[in-house]
Amino acid sequence: MNGETTLGRFDTQTALVGAGTGAEMTLVLTVVMTVAAAVIFVAVMGVAWWAWRRETNVRPWWVWTGGVVVPVITLALLVVGSSLTLAAIGEVDEEPAVIEVTGHQYWWDVIHDPRDRSLRDANEIVLPVDQPVTLRLKSEDVIHSFWVPSISGKMDMIPGRTNALTVTATRIGRFRGQCAEFCGLSHPLMAFEVVVVSTENYAAYLDGLETEARDADTLQRTRGRDVFIEAGCPACHAIRGVAEGARIGPDLTRVGGRASLGAGMWAMNVGNLAGWIADVQDMKPGAQMPSYNHLSGPDLRAVAHYLESLK
Ligand code: HEC
Ligand SMILES: [Cu+2]
């Protein structure tokens, strides 16, 4: 989904910019712990220097207080602080919306409102700002890990179970996420984007998910749609209104509207689309899609132009 971009694209995968309540609380905790550690380090070094400079031995009182009492109290405070933060993350007042995200080698299937499984998208998760959302995290193959550093901490996606991560995005913008658990050859190429939008734009986005794909409105795009069907792409990909049902690869109904191609990896444009279709194994080694290097040049261009027009 384009528009509403307030931050740059590839500099947004950082835990130092808080854009969700979980990440903000973790950031505060990190700063408190780092400052506390720095103060303790300086104090210990000071005391060590003082003890070293003394002519006579220090009294045991110093050892007991500085070596046992103070560390026990300090560590206890930090443990309480981090436990309270952990407990507070994910606590929400209103009933959260539910989005189901399923990890696949090496892409993300996204279902907005799992009761209506047709509200489907891929490799891009749109979130409403300031509203709690529970992400139901699953996997279809191996263990992946869902991580958007600016929004929240990590959560594993484990085959055969559903993990819940409740997040509240607090800033409109675009934030990068990344699979954080080694999951195969192209694990480092398994990223995605989270787009945080206003409540009105979120409603518009959900409406858009219900509509069919844009019509092929030029000769080339019509040819591209035919190539898509003739080449057998619908065995794995769905385009709503054109070819439905297949779930082995990402839903392509709005593929041209995503900011990136190949799960957060390349800019979305006709050139990259054509390169992907002709030689996906070069752009993403091990991807569960064959390279279509037998397509003629005009057919390849046509299908790339057609997919790019789907917004
Ligand atoms: C055997 C199943 C399969 C077939 C057949 C297949 N694909 Fe794919 N396709 C995939 C998978 C799996 C992915 C996700 C790859 C990844 O990112 O790891 C994918 C990804 C894509 C993407 C990127 C989507 C995105 O969100 O970035 C495009 C575009 C695409 N395929 C187009 C095609 C076209 C066009 C054809 C037919 C010429 C085709 N595919 C045939 C399985 C398939
Ligand atoms: Cu992964």
Automatic annotation (TrEMBL):
Keyword Methyltransferase included in the entry's annotation: no
Signal peptide (from-to): none
Pfam family, one: COX2
Record membrane topology: Multi-pass membrane protein
Domain of life: Bacteria
TM regions (residue ranges): 27-50, 62-89
Reaction(s) catalysed by this chain's protein: 4 Fe(II)-[cytochrome c] + O2 + 8 H(+)(in) = 4 Fe(III)-[cytochrome c] + 2 H2O + 4 H(+)(out)
UniProt entry keywords in alphabetical sequence: Copper, Electron transport, Heme, Iron, Membrane, Metal-binding, Oxidoreductase, Respiratory chain, Transmembrane, Transmembrane helix, Transport
Domain Cytochrome c residue range list: 219-311
Primary location class: membrane
One MF term in the entry's GO annotations: oxidoreductase activity
CDD domains linked to this entry: CuRO_CcO_Caa3_II
GO cellular component, one term: membrane
Compartment(s): Membrane
GO biological process: ATP synthesis coupled electron transport
Residue stretches making up the Cytochrome oxidase subunit II copper A binding domain: 94-208
Family indicated by similarity: Belongs to the cytochrome c oxidase subunit 2 family.
Function: Subunits I and II form the functional core of the enzyme complex. Electrons originating in cytochrome c are transferred via heme a and Cu(A) to the binuclear center formed by heme a3 and Cu(B).
PANTHER family documented for this protein: CYTOCHROME C OXIDASE SUBUNIT 2, CYTOCHROME C OXIDASE, SUBUNIT II
Protein name: Cytochrome aa3 subunit 2
Organism of origin: Thalassococcus profundi
